[in-house]
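Help! Submission page says 'invalid entity' but I think these are all valid:
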Amino acid sequence: MHFNLKINALKDELNFKNDSALVKFFVDTEKLEQLVDEFFLSLNYPLGKVQKKNFMDKKSDEFAYYSQTDEPSVIYVKKIKLDKHFSSDFFRNYFAGLIPSLKRKNLKAVHVVVPSFTVLKEHFECETQFVQGILEGIHLGNYTFDHYKSEKDKAADLSFFIHYSDQKILKDAIATTGNLMSAVSFARDLVNEPAITLTPSELASRTKKELSKLGVKVSVFDKNELKKRKMNAILAVGGASDNPPCLITMHYKPTVKTKKKIALVGKGVCYDSGGLSLKPTSSMMEMKADMAGGGAVIGIMKAAAMLKLPVEIIGVVPAVENMVNGSSYKPGDIVKSASGKSIEVKDTDAEGRIILADALHYASGQKPDEIIDFATLTGAVVVALGELAAGLFTQDDRLADELLNSGKSTYERLWRMPFWNDYNSMIKSEIADVSNLGPRWGGAITAGKFLENFVDEKIPWAHIDLAGPAIKHKSNNYTEKYDTGFGVRLIVNYLSKM
Ligand code: BES
Ligand code: ZN
Ligand code: ZN
């Protein structure tokens, strides 16, 4: 169940009604007991000794007071320690955890008293990012993917009242975050949707439906069109499924004059069984999410249109299912990609790089100022970085620095990997221009190096391997249940600064 959220800006003093909750933070070195005493006194609500003891959670430095009769109904007092464990993700993660816990409490409103920015300043990129983090946490905590559950609670109305001194910053952040997070939720819905429903053509039609109404032009190349354009790499990977492959292209052009045109390319493998180089069952479990790179690109297009970002964007998502039948492409095959370069297929499970070959070639042909691609490309990047960061591969230091900074501000973190040309020798083929399989070690890097073959070398390009953080993982409150939509907040931050 989720709430029908309404988020409001308030400057005035706290003014409680029945059925509401209050969230108050103290950034302090004093003992929690003392802070709680003073705060309840200021509310004209002296606490008894027993109450104080029962509601105190010293381990998490939190005091959660529940009352059946008095106003307000729930009071959360949380002490923040600015020690080495504090990060800019604190509020996002806190609210993402709080929202689900409010279910079945029959609350109508939640008042959040935002602490002063002055003391927290050094931990955030700017005041807007600080306020936005709180709002993002509320939206993320409210995300559910429960369309397939037959027993659902009815979504209840819940109003948030955010109390903050700077009304301009707060109101702007509420509007911006609302748009941004609806794009994140859209991306998450796509990634979480099982492959039985989200076929390549379904991905294309959902994209068209959602983006067309926002003024984004969406075109879909079907199998015939792919043949005409000699996109044999996409055709080879997608050839063994009853659900034919396609290439989704999107174009967002703002009305204002723009300085830059950016191409975003996303791996759209709606299901990755591995093909003839079949995966074991346990590795197939998450493979409905192998289009998370494509989902991120589609989500970014939606956010760009809703937020009216002043940058022209081309989105390119090759959508396929990597399956097995009599038409499967085979280890040993040589595929001639649209660029004219030939690919020796040594492993049909390294399919993402093959479809991206055609997609990156197509994107290069659009003559953008830069290209960024997103892909759940390798298990190797997860071995290297775990689930907390995506691998960043680029030769362009400016692009790297700016993307790394956006990663820090949004907490969708990137880690730059080596990308030396020495790795090229590892994907040489004796019989084709390039092999789709490198040696065991450094698999995420050789996968990136493979992609480099299909990008116009004059165009600055970055490759983001998000196989770790895009898929649900237990590291925090907003990634543990559902696939995450990783990349949307990151790139919208990057594009907003252009
Ligand atoms: N989709 C997988 C990569 C992946 C693994 C994504 C785990 C998310 C979680 C990709 O197509 C793949 O199978 N890669 C192979 C490449 C290998 C055959 C060179 C891998 O990483 O094992
Ligand atoms: Zn694969
Ligand atoms: Zn894959």
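Support: the input was valid. A stray whitespace character was the problem, and the output above is from the cleaned input. Residues 83 and 221 are 53 Å apart (CA to CA).
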